[in-house]
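ASSEMBLY PREDICTION REQUEST
Request ID: AP-0331
Submitted by: J.K., bench scientist
Number of chains: two
Total residues: 882
Priority: normal
Notes: Please return the full assembly, not individual chains.
Input sequences:
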Amino acid sequence: MKPQRAALESLTRRVRVLERGSERPERPPLATGWAGVDGLLGGGLARGVVHEWLGLDGPRVAAGGGAVGGGAFRAAGGRTGAAAWTPPLFLLAHLARRALAEADASAGGGADGAARWILWIGRRVWPYPRTLTRGGGLVECAGALAGGAHGLGGATPLEGARCALELDDVARSGSGGGVDRAVLDRSLFVDPPDRKGLLWAVDAALRCPTVAAVVADGSNLPLPASRRLQLAAEAGSGLCLLARPANELRQLSAAATRWHVRRGGPSPEDGPPLDSEAGELSTDPADRPRWDLELLRCRAGLARVARAPTADGMPTEGGAAAAGAAAGR
Amino acid sequence: MPRWLAIHLPRWSVERVRQRLVARAARRAVAIGGVDVGAPEPAPGDVAILLVETVAERLLVARCCAVASGHGVRVGMTVAGARALLGATPTHVEAHDPALERAALDALGRALWRFTPRVAARAPDGLLLDVAGCERLFGGERPLLEAAVGHVRALGFDARAALAGTASAARAVARFGPEPLAAVASGAERAALEHLPLEALDLEPRTLGALHELELTTLGQCLALSRAQVATRFGEPLLAALDRALGERPEAIECLRYAPPPSVERELEGATDDLETLLTCVRQLLDELAARLAEADVGALALLVELFPTDAPPAREWVALSAPSRDPAHLMTLIEPQLERVRLGFGVDRLRATAPRTAPLRPRQGAGFGLGADLTAGFDRALGELLDAYAGRFGPRRAYLVEAVESHLPERAFRPRPVPLGGAPPRLARASLGAGERPSSVLFRPEPAEVRTDPESGALLALRWRAEEHAILRALGPERLATTWWTALEPVELEERRAPTRTDYTSLDAPTPPPRKPRVEPSRDYWRVQDAAGRWLWIFRCGARWFVHGEWA
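STATUS: Completed
Returned structure:
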């Protein structure tokens, strides 16, 4: 079974390359630097697809006093600009930094020596620029990857897999003081005036060959628009990250992977804070911000199945079944 | 009968620099708005200007202004000696750039095309205008002379002028004649040149030296010598110069050329108000324009498309590019959103496409496969086209680069700079970033909050912000950001709802100008607090009040 499946996969890949034309080579997936996630997705985030990040909380009414998160809550008036929600900016900055580093590393040997850029489209996803100069990123917490619904003997299913991340300890991580302007120097911040303009801007940016990553505000994105963005992402070669508020969990979307990001709550074994300067991160791991990542959906064919042999030596099809279930969603 | 008007600009180099200093001082005065900043700036009229050049590794004065020469500075002196003579006078020293001056002189000459189509620039500081026949438009030669000089003086440059039958004579009289405005009748050049010194004709220094040795000081004495003597003693050039001045030999003067921008026009047989038809016509015009640009090996830096409706004023849509381009598809994507908004009236029967600004564009190979991207000052072709498309659709100030400025206030430490239309990316300030953890989301205007503290230990217990109560689990701090002693220029209103002038990148309100009252802010003590839901907030206390400034998202 195994060699036949490998042959089928390679044939699928060749057909895809032939359909698209031989101009763009297959880009390897982007390693996120989080071992659990990379292992789950077979190397990292795939290129040429849209990745959605839902978090950190749903939109709140600007005049205070509204419930946050969950359900079909909408900001008063329904205007797209009035709702206030916070996207996972540290996470997006970490992925953008890795995309730029990888693009620079690979472009050095490529045909064109053009500099790569990161585009931040939509005011909501503009991080404070110091975030972009921070040398470190997010690292996985000590806790390992926790599986979601079990039941398929040994293989780690994709849907519902969780990962805990925390902010890196820059001062002591040995990355040389931690100030790195490369990302800030190559970031362009775009502020389209309305929703249609934003979608058009993201579409145009994805098709541009020198854009390494596009981070955009994807709130209130209807399904046809997300399909168009998916087509645009396939035409380009950059990484596409869309941030959406958490209450859009139930909305249909054509994104290839959907992640739910929540704030990591304080764990009960955290001790009282040590004496430290607020200017640096202390050595106490409880003093660092944490996030919880959950993979909501992963499109079939994107992830490599995590295989673990069962007792009688035959590989299980657990992950493939989960992926097949996802295809029907 | 030829008539030449020569204009001499005695202090051309220095006056250009002084105009630039005046403009800069005026801009700074507007920006500061009258607040006293330390020592008052010297008035630009009192500043001594020195233009220096490097000769054999020494800095020598090439040009100096009247203020400097009043103190005794002369051309050819070393800069150190000049500074010693000037003493405490405020001085502005700059490198002398002859190429830039030449280009500016050409530009001034082009401004004088209003008087005659034939204008020539004579480096370093002279202009020649061929005004044979033009005096009719101005009502005589004297009014023409006064109009031309008046125009140059209105532009801020001191000028002397003279009219004569030959260009050399006119130039000589303009530079060394007794009056600032002189008109010499054709044929009377000899009398006019009689009393002028020898430097009036552009002679070689060797010839001049030889003439001085013979104690010949005026041109009249030169003209009195016999032609054979002049030819044998000083050679042909002196004879040729004298003949040209008197009109006996022709002069070859190369005038500034006017090159009209490439332009393509199309007339339709009947007026049409169908947008699709007009867009197709514009596409065809752009194809032809691209062919014209390709012939001249240039690319368009600006594109102007004009539609002429039959009954309405013409519609002009203009777009600028960041890099020269002659790709018709790209130009169409830039101009199409603007054309869709044009009022067509009853119909359009004439269209014109022009490229008012062009720049050399070398042909590229292999454009079809994305190879050969040329890097133009930081933005490559594909990104430049993307930014042009954004500017065409959203307007010019919608894409930003962020620069780090010297400010310890976190909300002011970064400033967005719009990507300029039709130019290289701006040079960004690169201030040092400083140590310390900063959140990923910082509010430009910190929001007031209430914090409950433990009365005994001073620990922070709870935070009330945006009408929600948060219990504080951990608080790390304090980190003090002290006030600067020069804060008079950077008041940040924490109470009233007035936004600063610079566009900030997080607030969605429209900015209005702040009040110019200087204030001294108390220092801020920052804490990083974690609440029960795991949210990390950045709060500070300023005096007795608490504010929330950011969040680790």
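REVIEWER COMMENTS: Chain A touches chain B through 65 residues (CB under 8 Å).
SIGN-OFF: pending second reviewer
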